[in-house]
Amino acid sequence: MKISKILVSQPKPTSEKSPYYDLESKYGVTVVFRPFIKVEGLSSKEFRKFKVNPADFTAVIFTARTAVDHYFRLAKELRFDVPDTMKYFCLSQTVAHYLQKYIQYRKRKIFYSENGKVEELITLIEKHKKEKFIFPMSDVHDTKASLIDEHQIKYTPAIMYRTVSNDFQPGEPFDYDMIILFTPSGIRALMSNFPDFVQGDIALGGMGPKTVEEIKSHGFRLDITTSPKAPSMPAAIDMYLAKVQREEMRQLTADTKKPAKKTSPAKKAAKKLTEAQIAKRRSEAAKKAAATRAAKRAEAERIAAEKAEAERRAAEEKARKRSEAAKKAAATRAAKRAIEAEKARKRSEAAKKAAATRAAKKAAQK
Predict the structure, then answer these.
(1) Would you call 160 exposed, middle or buried from its count of C-beta atoms within 10 A (0-12, 13-18, 19+)?
(2) CA dihedral 16, 279, 203, 221 (to 10 degrees)
(3) Are residues 146 and 67 part of one domain?
(4) pLDDT score, position 176
(5) Which residue range is the domain that position 111 belongs to?
(6) Which end of the chain has fewer CB atoms within 10 angstroms, the N or the C?
(7) pLDDT per residue over 211-238, tens digit each?
């Protein structure tokens, strides 16, 4: 089985140090990042249908940064000012620190699980049972909510966002030798986009028991998943590719040891492939992948530079408009002062004239 192109159903890593890029260099494969699903926030109108009022609660349970984003987004749309007394219970330190995007972290009551496990989070929640908890979540509940339910913790679920299929566009290529999935929604999105999908020689990988169960429920073969020896998906893929590579070498060795017989020129040429030639091909593929990444980085830098230039020009235009507005305001104020001075002068002259008239009348009376 030849693996050349791998589809990872996740957003592209923001760092060039991602282990997925190491796989490209090590095995000469191309890794394409394309999420099968995307998160879509509920509108304030949709959320109101659940008749959940965020103002009725004194504490929030956050198990993901996505929940944080949509909680504060909806709070703004609903014109709900989150009080400073609100307590936050987070699944991990990463989620807790993400709150800094919306609140002053040091001035709030924030609790989080040190080990990132829901069991420790439940322990923290149980110490504050008198609080009224709201739990922002997706329309597709995960096992975390189930575990909290098992401990009979009172909370109000608040569906604030949904998971939808990130549909493939007409003509978008689908020529992958390996597909890696991370959620049950991912395999359902795959079937939604390609109802007639046939696995054949395509290697399928799944992360997590629910995803693995969903893959098998559709009758597909599970080739890759995490394990104690490969706790991460990149490590599991590495192990699988190494196995494929060993099989290729064994097949090559077996072919060279077979007794000579009449074969086609194409098969003779294939038998002459040596380990060095295979390594050369992989090296060329790795160079091509590196060149592609470099081109993508250059394009991203170009776009960033253009954006920065546009922002600079916009800032300059804004400053120019502010300056013109300030000058206009100053001119208006000066004109008003001149008008007021002229009015004062006329009042003064009128007063002098009236005084002179009164003095003349008094003189005439005498």
Answers:
(1) buried
(2) -130
(3) yes
(4) 93
(5) 40-163
(6) C
(7) 999 999 999 999 999 999 999 999 999 9
